[in-house]
Each structure stands twice: as C-alpha cells, then as structure tokens.
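Input sequence (370 aa), recorded before submission:
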Amino acid sequence: MDHTHIAKVFDGGATEVGRPYFVMEYVPGVSITEYCDLHRLTVRERLELIIPLCQAVQHAHQKGVIHRDLKPSNILVADQDGGAIPKIIDFGIAKATGLRLTEKSLHTQRGQVIGTPAYMSPEQAEMSGLDVDTRTDIYSLGVILYELLTGALPFLPKDLEGLAALLTLRETEPPTPSTRFGTLGNRQQRIAECRRTDPRSLMRNLKGDLDWITMKAMEKDRSRRYETASELAVDIGRYLNGQTVLARAPSTGYRVKKFVRRHTAGVAFASVLLLLLVGFAVAMSVQAARIARERDRANLEAATAQQVSDFIVDLFAVSDPNQARGNEITAREILDKGAEEIEEGLEDQPQVRGRLMEVMGRVYLGLGIY
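Predicted structure, token format:
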C-alpha cells in the first residue's frame, strides 16, 4: 500500500531468535480523538479530517486488505505543512480479501474474536465463522465518526464487557448521535466547548443529516451500509457542501430546504421578485375586476334606461287612434295597463321592474291615485 494517509512499511524480517518485525514510518502524532479535542476542532473540521481517512481505507481495500481494527489509537494525526495529516497504522490483524498477506497465509480460527469490541462490526463479533468483508471497516469508520461528533461511544462500557459485548453488537441498536449526546448530562458543556460551540447548537447540528450518515455507516445489516469507504467520504462531502445526502431517501421538502441553504442569496432575490410579481398580478386582477364591474354596471344602467324608455313609448301607444278605435283612453287606463304589464311581463328582470314601478308610482302619486 502506498498512500499519504497510511503509515509506510519500509522493511520487515525476523530477529536471530526468529521473532518477526516490521520497520514502519514514524508518525509524530496523537490519536485522532485526542488531536481533535486538543485543538478544539469544530464539527466541520472533524468531518474534513474523516474524508482523507476514508480515502486511505478505500486504498487499502483496493489493494485487497481489510484493516479489521480501525479505532482512534490506530489513527494518528500530526501537524504537517500547516495542516492536520491523519495516518492509519497497525495492520496487525489485517485480512487479505483475495491474496496472501504473507508467504504462509494467516487464518483466524473459527469462533475466535479478533478486534476491539467498541469499534467492531456485528459480523466480526459473530462466532459462527461468518466471513467479513470490506464493510466491516465501514462500520468501524462509522463508530469513529460517532465518537468524533458526540464525544462518546454508541454503547456504554458495561455493555461491551465479556460475552455481553458480542450480544450487544449483534442485537442492540445504538442510539443516534444526537440522542446519545442528549444523555451525557454534565459532560455536554465540555464536549461542546471542545467543538467550539454550545450544547444546544451541537445538538441541532447533529440532528438530521449527521445522524443519518453515521447510522448508515453503522447499520447492523452490512448490505444496508455504504458499499465502500469512498461512498461514505462522498456523502460527508455532500453534507459539507450543503447538498442532499445519500444516507436517506430525500423528500421534496428536504431537497428544497437544501437548495435554499446552498443558494440563500439567489433564493432571497428570487423570492422578493416573485412577491413583487405576485403583488403586481393581484393589483392588476383587482383593477381589472373593478373595471369589469364598472363596465357591467354601466351596461346594465344603459340597458335598463333603454328598456324603461321602450316601455313608456309602448305604454302610450294605446292612445294611438288605430288601437283605441275611436274610444277615449284615460290616463288612469294607460297607467293600469302599464302596471299590469309590469306585474306579468318583467318577473325575470327585477332591476328593470323596480325602476318602472318607481316611475309608475310617481305618476299615480301625481294624479292623486294612491
């Protein structure tokens, strides 16, 4: 393996008494958890430190090697060229996936548990001889991420002692990072300060995407974990860039929220513009409706006036000699005939009918016919 974030092995051999040894690169650093707390790295800075670690694990997997004991003490971080450089060490219980690690292949006896329980995958804790694959390292990366975020391990120390550890790893679902952090009581303040924030803000930061990413990496069913360390690194990168993460099936609302966060200024401008357009459209609609009402009222007034005029003309047509046939027609008869026609002929036109009744009433009043 030849990777910036994996400690190099320069030589190997055996002493005169037959004891094997490796000559490895010296890493002048401390464990990743100690380094993060010592330098009070923020949640974002811790996530940025996990990404190259994932890439290093991916490199080992591509070379056919599973670490099987990834934990903070096997990941040393040193300051180099003004930046933090994590390096994976101790491939002492590494497993070859498709080729021999040594001239004589190393085998793990059935039923023998190898690894550190706090960071061990459920399948690695199985005593049934179930073969482990690269996804066991994905689980360990998830536990390391969990600890870097919350300052605590998924399970209590008492649950990881003796045979209870195997049962816990296989059967018990760990709480989400945000839930675990909520149970830490007085420790919350110190943990938050090591991340340069306060407990409430840290809790809010953990909820949602970081819960989903961490729990997907730590799925008990390995088929539901990230397939590769690269996928985990990519999803962390998506979170840091404000994009939708792949750890959950995003809803439309979730996608919209993420888009708004990534393009706050543009969305704000578009929202203001949209509000202006909506306001203008509403104003125009109100104005158009008002104009339409005025026009309809004017048309109705004109039609009513025309009908009143036509009615009056028709009413006095009864005095035409051709219709009267020589009979003398009184004003009372003309009015009575008009009143009768109003009652019978304008039932479907109440406004016209009302106008004519008013006119007829005034004429009757003028004639003293009450």
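Checked by second reader. The first strand starts at residue 9 and ends at 14.
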